[in-house]
Structure to design on (194 residues):
């Protein structure tokens, strides 16, 4: 699952996990400092640049990318263990990482979360208070290019205007995919953005 910063990806992912059995939500590693309301190991695994580079060199990451000056990656071992256990895996990652993951799991279902408007996205980013104004502006400017790329690579676009409706749509997409339903791709790995 992917989408621009502040669109509500994390909230949607957490709600989806509550509603579906046998789902593993991957926790990404990152070199960025934690936000005031973030918990290490729950929201992200916060590590140093040196530790991140060691994981890359050791082949421990399924995908990795630099986003707004910080590195993010998906630990390979937990994803593989969960897939082998028959679970649906949700990766909350950026577009760069999603493209890498899609090469490894070509049948992955790609879900992109859209804001109802640019104004709403800016308000949501401001409310979460995680970025300084310069970083927030960079992220807002990057949102339009992410959205443009998403139309090319993602199977499903979900507008997060109403949280419960967006969660319902994502749950239906995952259920349809897992049961071999109407989704374009049939897979147990559902991929998205940071």
């Amino acid at each position: 699952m992917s989408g621009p910063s502040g669109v509500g990806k994390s909230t949607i992912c957490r709600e989806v996990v509550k509603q579906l059995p046998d789902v593993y939500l991957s926790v990404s590693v990152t070199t960025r400092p934690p936000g005031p309301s973030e918990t290490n190991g729950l929201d992200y695994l916060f590590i140093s640049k040196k530790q991140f580079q060691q994981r890359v060199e050791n082949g421990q990451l399924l995908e990795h990318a630099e986003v707004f000056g910080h590195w993010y990656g998906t630990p390979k071992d937990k994803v593989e263990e969960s897939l082998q256990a028959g679970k649906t895996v949700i990766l909350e990652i950026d577009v760069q990482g999603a493209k890498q993951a899609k090469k490894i799991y070509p049948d992955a279902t790609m879900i992109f979360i859209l804001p109802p408007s640019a104004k709403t996205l800016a308000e949501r980013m401001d409310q979460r208070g995680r970025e300084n104004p310069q970083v927030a502006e960079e992220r807002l400017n990057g949102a339009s290019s992410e959205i443009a790329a998403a139309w090319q690579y993602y199977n499903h676009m979900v507008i997060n205007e109403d949280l419960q409706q967006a969660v319902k749509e994502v749950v239906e997409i995952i259920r349809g995919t897992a049961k071999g339903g109407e989704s374009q791709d049939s897979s147990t790995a559902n991929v998205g953005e940071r």
Remarks:
- Residues 180-194 have pLDDT under 50 and may be disordered.
